[in-house]
């Protein structure tokens, strides 16, 4: 195999590592591209191409994450990862770990870890790398990496999200939820929501978002219905799609431009959390992005006109 073939074969793994460390599609793609440039400059092939390239992309991702953490501390409102529709890396032997680590809930939880803890956790618990390889990747001793792994695992276990084990049941519940949403069925929505459900939006100060999380089945179901009807009136479409390995939907305006995504955490037969990403900077990799402010203005205008006509 050529040098290029070696790299392309490992590209899905490299992106998967970088995305889980960074929580950003664009930054992960940049990290993989930088890894390629360094790979081109290597004079002799290493003993293990996989170990070498994984170490390089990990080091690059750690450096990027350290600078990104300052920006995230100044972020307006809740921070969610850039939504990922399809994970390019597949490994049947680690499918459970890969799926769990990809969810928005898990990536938000990873934000609590230091960059080194995060990298060690991703390499060890998600991708199953040995400690000698991890030590080389993060430039720490094996003993130090074991300690980092223990600390990271403790943090993750304390807040690890629970998901519906049966994918088919989860998808059926999500389908019922989005049907009830489109139909404006408050009762239908309420019965699918956990009593303490939360709906949280990430607009980053660049798009409409709620000032705080909306909590409780009654409040969330009524807010969803209040949004649904005017959206339908102005031609907003809801495209079901897996988001970060969980059931979700992409909302598009009448021209097909992306408005936002919504991802569902489902456990115990109920929807526990609804996360919406509407920050346009986090949606550009999904295609042309709509002006969410303009969409909301049009929806509000449609709501007012309907109310006035009903008087």
TrEMBL record:
Keywords: Sigma factor, Transcription, Transcription regulation. Residues 105-156 form the RNA polymerase sigma factor 70 region 4 type domain. Pfam families: Sigma70_r2, Sigma70_r4_2. This is ECF subfamily RNA polymerase sigma-24 subunit. The keyword Oxidoreductase does not apply. SUPFAM superfamilies: NTF2-like, Sigma2 domain of RNA polymerase sigma factors, Sigma3 and sigma4 domains of RNA polymerase sigma factors. GO terms for molecular function: DNA binding; sigma factor activity. The keyword Endoplasmic reticulum does not apply. The lineage of its organism: Bacteria, Bacillati, Actinomycetota, Actinomycetes, Kitasatosporales. Residues 7-69 form the RNA polymerase sigma-70 region domain. It comes from Streptomyces davaonensis (strain DSM 101723 / JCM 4913 / KCC S-0913 / 768). Belongs to the sigma-70 factor family. ECF subfamily. One of its GO terms (biological process) is DNA-templated transcription initiation. Transmembrane segments: none annotated. Interacts transiently with the RNA polymerase catalytic core formed by RpoA, RpoB, RpoC and RpoZ (2 alpha, 1 beta, 1 beta' and 1 omega subunit) to form the RNA polymerase holoenzyme that can initiate transcription.
């Amino acid at each position: 195999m050529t040098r290029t073939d070696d790299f392309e074969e490992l590209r899905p793994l490299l992106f998967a590592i970088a995305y889980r460390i960074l929580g950003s599609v664009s930054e992960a793609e940049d990290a993989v591209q930088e890894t390629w440039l360094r790979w081109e400059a290597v004079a002799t092939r290493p003993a293990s191409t996989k170990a070498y390239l994984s170490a390089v992309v990990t080091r690059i991702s750690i450096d990027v994450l350290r600078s990104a953490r300052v920006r995230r501390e100044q972020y307006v409102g809740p921070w969610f990862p850039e939504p990922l529709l399809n994970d390019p890396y597949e490994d049947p032997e680690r499918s459970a770990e890969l799926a769990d680590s990809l969810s928005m809930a898990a990536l938000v939880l990873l934000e609590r870890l230091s960059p080194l803890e995060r990298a060690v956790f991703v390499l060890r618990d998600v991708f199953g790398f040995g400690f000698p390889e991890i030590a080389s990747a993060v430039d720490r001793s094996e003993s130090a990496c074991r300690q980092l792994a223990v600390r990271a695992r403790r943090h993750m276990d304390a807040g690890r999200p629970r998901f519906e084990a049966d994918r088919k049941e989860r998808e059926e519940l999500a389908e019922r939820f989005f049907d009830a949403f489109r139909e404006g069925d408050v009762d239908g929505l309420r019965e699918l929501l956990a009593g303490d459900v939360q709906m949280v939006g990430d607009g980053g100060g660049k798009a409409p978002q709620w000032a705080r999380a909306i909590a409780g089945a009654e409040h969330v179901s009524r807010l969803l219905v209040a949004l649904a009807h005017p959206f339908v009136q102005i031609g907003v479409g809801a495209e079901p799609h897996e988001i970060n390995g969980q059931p979700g939907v992409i909302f598009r305006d009448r021209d097909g431009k992306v408005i936002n995504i919504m991802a569902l955490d489902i456990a115990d037969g109920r929807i526990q959390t609804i996360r919406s990403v509407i920050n346009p900077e986090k949606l550009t990799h999904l295609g042309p992005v709509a002006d969410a402010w303009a969409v909301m203005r049009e929806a509000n205008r449609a709501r007012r006109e309907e109310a006035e006509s009903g008087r």
